[in-house]
Amino acid sequence: MPKTPRKSKSPSPEWARPIRELRQELGLNQADLGLRLHYSPMAISRWERGQQEPTDRAYIELGNLAGNPKCWYFWGRAGLHSENLLRVMPKMRDRLQTSTVANLEIACAGSGAQKTQLQKQKLVAIPLLKVVAATHGETGGHRSSLLSGPVESVIAAPREWCPNPATTSCLRVRGNSMSPLIQDGYILGVDYSQSDQIQLNGKIVIAWHKDRGLTVSRLRRFDHTEVLEPENHGYEAITLGAKQRWTILAKVLWWIAMAP
């Protein structure tokens, strides 16, 4: 009987091999890489076998791990290119006119402090999510959006602005209760690895309530009472308690806005 010809395996997509090579260069197994990127080992396996392409957020974090110049491949898959870097970091433009992007040092997420020459700039790519952090009186996004929300764009931020790049995201603000400090439409950089309410006393935070969604406010502790306090005193503070069921999710690191 004639043998049934074997079905030839379809070639892996071109993005699968760079992921596997990066993991091997870093000396990590799939579980370790998943831990660094906040994804499961099974997800890493599917990426490397070409069964599922990483999300934009995962590509951004892979680029942060890869460092320059390999970061540009992964960031390019998420839509960030070197010309975008100059656009979002205008103060660097003149400095780079007589240099090249290779003179920039891209900090690796989770890699710790790195010794570098003073003239090099440490940058990380931070995802700007299609997620809203509401102020008092408005409704924000769902808490899961901080981890798996769709990416609108990316922002190249100084490394010193982002102590934990792999857990840092950017959100847009809706509402006016944090004005004049933070206005409607501002972009927040938030770190969701920092959620200890004792350490965040007096800090601006992202809180979540099932009915109000993600909310930006200042956390205050008074004896045994905690409140979310607006900057604009025309809005009422929110007292936290068992009935309110608010959860503190992240610390606000910084905020930026487009000039009018």
Topology:
Elements: H1 16-25, H2 30-37, H3 41-48, H4 56-66, H5 71-77, H6 82-88, H7 93-97, E1 105-106, E2 122-134, H8 145-148, E3 151-158, E4 168-174, E5 187-191, E6 204-209, E7 213-222, E8 225-229, E9 238-240, E10 247-256
Parallel strand pairs: 1-2, 2-4
Antiparallel strand pairs: 2-3, 4-5, 5-10, 6-7, 6-10, 7-8, 8-9
Helix pairs in contact: 2-3, 4-5
Any overview of this molecule?
There is one protein chain. The chain has 260 residues and is of the alpha+beta class. It has one domain: Umud Fragment, subunit A (Ribbon), CATH 2.10.109.10. The chain contains eight helices and ten strands. A hairpin with an 8-residue loop joins β8 and β9. α2 packs across α3 and α4 packs antiparallel against α5. The longest helix has 11 residues. It starts with 15 loop residues before the first helix and ends with a strand.
Summary?
The protein has helices at 16-25, 30-37, 41-48, 56-66, 71-77, 82-88, 93-97, 145-148; strands at residues 105-106, 122-134, 151-158, 168-174, 187-191, 204-209, 213-222, 225-229, 238-240, 247-256. With 260 residues, it is of the alpha+beta class. The chain has one domain (55-256): Umud Fragment, subunit A (Ribbon), CATH 2.10.109.
Features:
260 residues, alpha+beta, Umud Fragment, subunit A, 10-stranded mixed beta sheet, elongated
Q: CATH-wise, what's the superfamily?
A: Umud Fragment, subunit A
Tally of individual helices: 8
Number of strands: 10
Category from helices, strands and their pairing: alpha+beta
Largest sheet report: 10 strands, mixed
Give the class-level CATH name.
Mainly Beta
Order of helices and strands: HHHHHHHEEHEEEEEEEE
